[in-house]
């Protein structure tokens, strides 16, 4: 409002009745909580040009139309109607749980797929490196234990121990 307020009244409008929530007489700075004294908070001080209320422990049953009636020091009257909608917390919780569970499952699938891909890539690299070392001839003969054939024309005999097998069949 343009000028300071003199009286403020908050009411809840229901189809069968009007509940007076709070009344504030700004000329003496006193607020009177009528029926809902513990549930409704309102500031009441001289020189105010607007008003608001706080509904504590709000529930879905508090949904509805609320009316604010203001009277200024100059005698001007204004009435404002506000619709308050409070959704049921149980419905909202189920939706949130669904989305949180879906997000967690998606993240878990993503992490598992990254682990599997990295495992197979590493395994492929290790097997390729192992294959490369087995198929390439050794360049460092001193380490491998294989004599270097370019060191001379010396020949070495290679002996292999094989077990002797009997030519006779075993009696049964």
What is the compact description of this entry?
30% of the residues lie in helices and 26% in strands. It has 172 residues and is α+β, with helices and mostly antiparallel strands.
Features:
single chain; 172 residues; alpha+beta; Immunoglobulin-like; 2 domains; five-stranded antiparallel sheet; two-stranded antiparallel ribbon; 2 helices; 7 strands; 30% helix; rod-shaped
Q: What value does the Rg take, in angstroms?
A: 45 Å
State the CATH class of the largest domain: Mainly Beta
Fill in the CATH topology of the largest domain.
Answer: Immunoglobulin-like
C-alpha termini separation: 120 Å
How many independent structural domains? 2
From the structure provided, what is the oligomeric state, counting identical versus distinct chains?
single chain
Largest pleated sheet: 5 strands, antiparallel
The shape, in one word, is: rod-shaped
Fraction of residues in H or I helices:
25-40%
Q: State the fourth-level CATH superfamily of the largest domain.
A: Immunoglobulins
Structure description:
The chain is of the alpha+beta class. It has two domains: 5-84, Immunoglobulin-like, CATH 2.60.40.10; 88-130. It has helices spanning 89-135, 141-144; strands at residues 5-13, 18-25, 30-33, 40-42, 53-55, 64-72, 77-84. It has a five-stranded antiparallel sheet with strand order 3-2-1-6-7, with no helix packed on it. Strand 2 (18-25) and strand 3 (30-33) form a beta hairpin. The longest helix has 47 residues, at 89-135.
């Amino acid at each position: 409002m343009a000028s300071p307020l003199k009286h403020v009244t908050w009411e809840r409008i229901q189809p069968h009745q009007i509940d007076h929530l709070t009344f504030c007489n700004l000329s003496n700075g006193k607020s009177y909580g009528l029926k809902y004294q513990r549930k409704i908070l309102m500031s009441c001080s001289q020189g105010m040009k607007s008003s608001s209320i706080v509904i504590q422990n709000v529930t879905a049953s508090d949904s509805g139309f609320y009316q604010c009636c203001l009277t200024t020091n100059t005698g001007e009257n204004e009435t404002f109607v506000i619709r308050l909608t409070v959704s049921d917390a149980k419905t909202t919780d189920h939706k949130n749980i669904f989305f949180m569970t879906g997000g967690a499952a998606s993240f878990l699938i993503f992490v598992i797929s990254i682990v599997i891909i990295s495992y197979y890539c590493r395994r492929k690299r290790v097997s390729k490196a192992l294959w490369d070392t087995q198929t390439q001839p050794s360049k460092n003969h001193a380490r491998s234990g294989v004599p270097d054939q370019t060191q001379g024309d010396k020949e070495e005999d290679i002996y292999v121990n094989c077990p002797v097998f009997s030519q006779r069949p075993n009696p049964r």
